[in-house]
Amino acid sequence: MDWRNWSGLQRAHPATVYTPAEETGITAAVREARARGLALRVVGSGHSFTPLCVTDGAQLSLRNHAGIVAVDGPKATVRAGTTIRTLGPLLRAHGLNLANQGDIDAQAIAGAVGTGTHGTGRGLGCLSSQVTAFRLVTACGDVIEADAAREPELFQAARVSFGTLGVFSTLTLDCRPAYSLREESVVRPLDRILKEFPTLAEAHDHAEFFWFPMADSVVFKTLDRTDAAPGLGRYLRPVKSMVLENGAIWAMGNLSRLAPGLTGPLSRLSAAVGGGGAHVDQAERIFPSPRLVRFNEMEYAVPAEQGLDCIAEIRDWFRKTGTRVYFPIEYRLVAKDDIWLSPFHGRDSATISVHRFAHEDFRPYFAAMEAIFANHKGRPHWGKLHNLTAADCARLYPEWDRYRDLRRRLDPTGLFLNEHLRGLFEG
Ligand SMILES: Cc1cc2nc3c(=O)[nH]c(=O)nc-3n(C[C@H](O)[C@H](O)[C@H](O)COP(=O)(O)OP(=O)(O)OC[C@H]3O[C@@H](n4cnc5c(N)ncnc54)[C@H](O)[C@@H]3O)c2cc1C
Predict the structure, then answer these.
(1) Ligand 1 proximity of 104 Cβ (cutoff 6 Å)
(2) Model confidence pLDDT, tens digit, residues 67-91
(3) CA-CA to 49 of 20 to 30 Å: which in 59, 117, 184, 301?
(4) For 52-61, how does the pLDDT look when each residue is reduced to its tens digit (9 = 90+)?
(5) What are phi and psi of 358, to 5 degrees?
C-alpha cells in the first residue's frame, strides 16, 4: 500500500503494514518484521515533513490502538495511537485537559510526543515533557515500563526518540483540571512586537505571533485561561478560520504565485485583516485551528533570549535579498526540559517556523533560513525539514553520543532505522 505524508513530500511503498489493536499485536508485529529481515517504522498520523516514517520494509500504524486506559488524579494513561483530537473529549469526560497543545490536533499522541511537538506558553514545555511514564516495545519484542524512577536513562531518552528506540504502546500524561481559554488576535507593527514581546509573553498564558515577512506587521495571538462561559463566537470561530485563514491564505498564495509582484501588497493586506477578535471555548477546541492549505515547513528552536534577534536577522535578510515569500513566519516560546534529544533540552527556547506552499520549491529559502538559525545555535524540530548531519547533531545536543549508544544497545541490528535515520545515527 502506498503511503504519503500530509504535505505529499514524503512517499513510501512499505512491503507490509501492521495495524494492531492490542499491545500483543505490537509485539507480534515487531517480532515478525525482525524474523522476515524487514526494517520497521512506526507511523502516527503522517504529519511530519521529514522522512521519519518512510520505509520499504514494515510500517506499523497504531490507529486501531486508541483510547484511555486509566485515569489516576491528573495522570491519564492513553493508548499510543489516540489522536489528540479524540483525546480532548475523552480527557474532558474525566475533568482533564492537556496542559498545552500545538496548532493542530490531527497527530497521534505518540507521533506528537515522538518529535517534541509543542505549543507556546509561559513556562510550558513540549508535549513530551508532559509524559510521566510509558510502555515501550523494544526491538526484541519485549515490553519495558519506564518512568523517572524505574528506568531513568530510557525515560530521559525515549520521550523524544521518533520511533528509533522502540514503539510506545501507552503513554501516561500529566494533565490539568479541565479549563477554558479566551483567544484574541490583534494586528501590531513588527517593530513594536520586537520591543514588547517579552513583556507581553509574561502577561499571557500563551502568546505567539505570525509575521508576514513582506509586511511590517504581525498578527499577535494570545490565549488566556478564563472562567467565562463560551459565547456564540465559538460557532463562528471555525467558519472564520476556514474563510479568513485557510481561504485567504490559499487565494493570496496562488495570486502571489501568478503575479509575484503582488506578494508585498497581498502580505500587507493579509496582515492588516488578520486580527480575529476574541473567542472563548473549551481549551481542546481553542488550541487547534484547521490547516487545509498544504505546505512544507522548517522550524528551529533557538535560545529564548536570542529569538527576537533571530527574527531581526531574518528581516534584514529579506530586505537585503528582496526575496518574496507570502507565507507567515510563526514565533512561539517553549520551556526547557531534560529530554536528551528534545530541541528544548536545557534551554528555554523560541521556535521560529518558516513555510512554503506544497507546490513551491522550499529549498533555497529554507537553506538561507537554516544558515541564520545556525548563527543562533538553533536545533531543528525533528518532524520539520532540516539538513543536519550526525556531526551537527553531536555539536548541538550534549547527550547525542549517549543517546546513540543507548540506541545501539537496544536495537543492535538497526530494526528501527531507515535511510534518513541511519544517516543521523550511523553517519
Ligand atoms: C499542519 C501541521 C501543523 C503542525 N503544527 C505543529 C505545532 O503546532 N507544533 C509542533 O511542534 N509541531 C507541529 N507540527 C508537526 C507535527 O506535530 C509533528 O511532526 C508530529 O510528530 C506529527 O505527529 P504524527 O502523529 O503525524 O506523527 P508521524 O509524523 O506519523 O510520526 C512522527 C514520529 O513519531 C514516531 N511515532 C509515531 N508513533 C509512535 C509510537 N507509537 N511509538 C514511538 N514512536 C512513534 C514516528 O516513527 C515518527 O518518527 C505540525 C505539522 C503539520 C503538518
Answers:
(1) yes
(2) 999 999 999 999 999 999 999 999 9
(3) 184
(4) 999 999 999 9
(5) -60, -30
Ligand 1 center from residue 14 Cα (angstroms): 19
- In whole angstroms, what is the distance from residue 311 CA to residue 240 CA? 28
Q: Ligand 1: does its nearest atom lie under 6 Å from the Cβ of 46?
A: yes
Phi, psi of 356 (to 5 degrees): -140, 145
Coil/strand/helix, residue 271 = helix
Q: Structure pTM?
A: 0.97
Domains of the chain (ranges; CATH) run 61-177+390-425 (3.30.465.10), 180-380 (3.40.462.10)
Let me know: does 222 contact 122? Beta carbons within 8 Å: no
Measured from the Cβ of residue 150, the count of other Cβ atoms closer than 10 Å reads: 11
Backbone angles phi, psi at 69, to 5 degrees: -90, -45
- Residue 382 CA: nearest ligand 1 atom is 19
Tell me which residue of 298, 300, 302 sits closest to 384, measured CA to CA.
298
Q: What is the pLDDT of residue 275?
A: 72
Query: CB of 100 closer than 6 A to ligand 1?
Result: no
Beta strands in 247-381 (DSSP E): 277-282, 295-303, 329-334, 349-357, 379-380
